[in-house]
Amino acid sequence: MDQAQKRQKREDGAEILEAAMARMESTTMVAGFIPSNTFTGARPGYVFKKGLSGVGFYPDKIEQDKIAKQQPTQQKKKAAAPLDANKLLEEAEREHAAEADAQVEVLDVRGLKRLILSFEKKLRDNMEARMKYAENPDKFLESEIDLDDEIKKLHALATAPKLYPELVRLNAHASILNLLSHENPDIAVDTVEVLHELTSSDVMEDCEEEAQILVDALLESNTLELLVQNLSRFDEKIPEEASAVFNSLGVIENMMEVRKEIAEAALTRTKLLRWLLSRIKPREFDSNKFYAAELLSILMQGNEPNQKKLGAANGIDTLLQAAAMYKGREPHTSDEEEMVANLFDAMCWVVMHSENKEKFVQAEGIELMLLIMKNKRFARLSALKTLDFALTRCPAGCERFVDVLGLKSAFAAFMGKVHKTTKRKLTPEEKEEEEQRAISLVASLFLGLSRGSRRDRLGSKFVEAEFEKIDRLMEMFIKFKAQVDKATKEYMQECQEEGLDADDEELFTARSDAGLFTLQMVVLIMANVWSFSHAGMKARVLLLLTQHDLQLSAARELLQEHCDTIGESDGAEERQKRQKRIQK
To answer: Are 59 and 32 in contact (CB under 8 A)?
Structure first.
């Protein structure tokens, strides 16, 4: 709600309260008096006259006594309670709201044209007044107020998304967009609010075709550029303009939901990336920093060109600086917690790009993530997740991780010991994720360290404390194998009951949801442990398998399945290389 609306509501409330108090004052003089300037017909128990409270209907005691005697005893009215100003105000507001609802009209094509014509006229009048009285703002102030009122009326367009094609045909969207550059920031603020409502997902979800027409028209009319230019223009110290920044980011996100390719266009055609990175730098938390982090994460999600752009813009350093604020402190609110999660999610997406992995290592991202994990603050699970993404297929990162003594932190998570010593306890879902991330991280380390002393140091961890890490490894193997086997059995049973043939893709999906990838990573670690040819480790693995009536062949089958499902996103040669590396 903008300031003008708040002011109008206060004025309406004042008028309603004044009327209510007037009624109180009059009724305290003569109880039951009903004011009326003219005689509107006889009322049982009342007489029309001019008395102490003015002209109106006054109670006639004799007539009211007769009426009361005619009614059953149980229906006699109780003594009137003293009038209450708050109750009178609530009653008047309800009546006012009911009248407003009754006046709402469903917008049709004719109504749309009238609305647009009125808006265009006020816009033209304002432009002419500004040109004519450029040196005398008082002269065009009235036209500015009229224009602002017309802009607010445009909110009605959001009630009829089916008319968006007609809105575009009339070229009204271009006139609306022109106001984003209006010299009066209040006009631009209200315009952004209208655009935000027009593109709201709640409005457009049932009208996808019409939504696409509007979004395409907005994109062609340089809406992205205009919105991003205003981000720097608005003064966020002013609440209304800070709200306009939030709504501007909302319009961009809404457009991306309709057209996925807009995510890349937003960073190619505008300076949005630079603004977002600068916005997450301040230490103070607010709603716009929250939205900037969220939008940054959305822009990076699965978008390799955007990931590359952020890396080239020194964005990894900025993300690390923003994350570093939480290495020793906790977020204060749930919104701030979500913002922190968004920052780390953006970093995870960014380091999926091979070039950005190197930049992450060079920027000492590994050291920062380990420090956050050691401090055992809120962000420690996000830091573990980031390391998991960063070290996947990154030998240089794996070597650096061992050199900076990261194995201790990695295996603390692997053994499930971290959450037992932290103040903030993890939820069951978070514990499950921590377990899976730790398994994936250790597997990445084995794949990244092909030989040398670093690999030996990694392998020696499984000998410590009487092979406790092998025991833990086997515990997870049993757990995830049981989950995957159960999912397989349930799927096959369902197909049998329905008389359907099993579908390989559906079965693979069901097994994946049950933890197939994590199970394969466990087997991958087991295979690497076996490859050390350490008599004690091999004996421990065989002993534990025997205790659970399992054979090495079960692990080999899972490892082969993992090799077969390795994709070719990096080319057939790279795929073969990785398969051979695993099969060793």
So the answer is: yes
